[in-house]
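REQUEST ID: PR-0412
SUBMITTED BY: lab tech R.K.
PRIORITY: routine
TASK: structure prediction, single protein chain
INPUT:
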Amino acid sequence: MAQFPILRLTRAGQDLVGMSQGGGKLIFVRAELGDGQLGEAESVEMLHALKHRVMQLPLQGYLNEGNGKARLRFVVDNSALTSGFFNREVGIVAKIEGGEEKLYAYTNAGNYADYIPSKDTPIDSEIIDLHIVIGNATHVTIETQNGAYATRIEFDDHRTAPELDHPEKSVHKKHLHQDAYESPALTGTPTAPTAGRGTNNGQIASTAFVAQAIAALVNSAPGALDTLQELAAALGNDANFAATVTNALAGKVSKSGDTITGALKFDENENTEMSIFPAHYYHRLFDGSTTYVHAYDTLPPPRKKTMYEIRVADGEGGFIGHLFTPEGLHSNLKGKADYAGNADHLGGQSLQWIVDQINAAKTGIVAGNLEQNGWVKFANGLIVQ
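STATUS: complete
OUTPUT:
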């Protein structure tokens, strides 16, 4: 097994540490292996590169160990090695972000090196951890390459790490419990994509989605009816408003015709005095002591005062009027004066027949009247002066 001394910083490495402490970002680029011999008069601090580089290996991981030290990890295998060599040299190449790559640290095993055969003799991959000095540098990272891969050790370290410090800061909370994912307590101003109008699924509703949904619900409603409270007040806070209106309408008389089962009552006021007769007539049902049951075709109607007038259609497009006053009936009487329910009937004869009988009887009493000489002649021939 090879025996390497502690890694030592080169002069270039010391300069990089100084620049990183001044705010520069220190980036570890790769590890290099070689078989070069370091002369007795040569100093590690003055080296700018390996004496004879054979392999370049991507870095697998970086860990700040504190106290100005860090651990770099890489993996050695011979899958691409064409010729075997004695691995005496190990170097770490680094740079300041935006600067040139430089040999940061170096060590040489001398005669205590291990032999790494070519790819014709496959070997198991070997994980190498190097502990190097970084001083007080706070902005330190590694440059990963496509050839880098995670080892089993790194998976275990990641699984049990007290804090998952991802570079993009996506996860950094210590050992999140399952409940933290099911009911996270969000702080700050978390954002989410705004769902399209009418979306109805499990997507998170942003404030913008809620605002557009409310705007669509209100839809330019008048200011006095654009809140649920105002709508409730307009409906009389009646949760069964539709049923209430339906029941109320069911108790109304239809203008197209209906059956009235109760009594109709009219108050003596201007509203109820108006017509229940055809619309082309003007009517008043009440006027002081007079009740009209006739529809007048003039406006205003004639005042009859304590009179009743009944008009009956004559069957020829006109009507016959019958007027009642305190003095009696004013009408052209026709028909019979009696009816079956009247005990004081007139023998079933018409009034005209009675008048005719009276006129005929008069001729039997007085035959003539001689007014100039005062003579009266009776029907039997007697003359009286």
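NOTES: Helices lie at 11-21, 152-160, 178-182, 207-218, 228-234, 241-250, 351-362.
REVIEWED BY: pending
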